[in-house]
């Protein structure tokens, strides 16, 4: 039986009211061998579950080559099957985009299974993806670098990082300039964070927090 592994990459949280989520699934075929010991290519499907409160805006392979994924079987309930090209010993990355109904509570937004196409055996099941919303900018500014790479967010991450560094240094003018620049870049990208970044951000310096904790523990 073929052996697969999966990883999930996503941002830390979403700003309150944001309805767009992007998730990176990294799927690796560790061993394509069959019951007969044949190490040749293995045929699998990706089986995706999303809740009724979510609609899929994109689901495509982004590495090693870009390829669109088309559902081949509606499955049962909220599951959809997507065909893939035969697998050898390799790794592939997939980006899932969802439009969801924002919530005040954490919600499960996706599950991914790797399924043997011949007998429907589940070869690997990814950890369920849970999404949360927060008003704290440091929560929704935790951008995942792996996901950012495929979303064209490198420059946005750089500007956000500059803003957070300025906050910790107490450089208010630099902070304002960096986050204004980040807001412009997010707007250019059509990024879900554009709206939240367009408003003044109230962010506490981490160095201040650490100092306060030290003072409380050493009266």
Describe the secondary structure blueprint for this structure.
Blueprint: E1 3-9, E2 14-15, E3 20-31, E4 44-49, E5 54-63, E6 67-68, E7 71-73, E8 79-83, E9 90-100, E10 107-116, E11 122-125, E12 129-131, E13 133-134, H1 137-140, H2 145-151, H3 154-169, H4 172-189, H5 194-197, H6 206-217
Parallel strand pairs: 2-13
Antiparallel strand pairs: 1-3, 3-9, 4-8, 4-10, 5-6, 5-9, 7-8, 10-11, 10-12
Helix pairs in contact: 3-4
Question: What would you call the quaternary organization?
Answer: single chain
Q: Strand share of the residues?
A: 35-45%
Query: H/E order of the elements?
Result: EEEEEEEEEEEEEHHHHHH
- Radius of gyration, rounded? 21 Å
- The number of domains is 2
Mean pLDDT, rounded to whole units? 89
Structural class: alpha+beta
Q: Report, as a whole number of angstroms, the end-to-end distance.
A: 61 Å
Instruction: Kindly state the percentage of residues in helix.
Output: 25-40%
What does this structure look like?
With 219 residues, the protein is an alpha+beta fold. The protein folds into 2 domains: 131 residues, Immunoglobulin-like; 66 residues. It contains 6 helices and 13 strands. Strands 4, 7, 8, 10, 11 and 12 form a 6-stranded antiparallel beta sheet that branches. A 5-stranded antiparallel beta sheet has the order 1-3-9-5-6, with helices on one face. A hairpin with a 5-residue loop joins strand 10 and strand 11. It is elongated and about 60 Å long. The C terminus is likely disordered.
Task: Please summarize what this structure is.
The protein has 219 residues and is an alpha+beta fold. The protein is 28% helix and 35% strand.
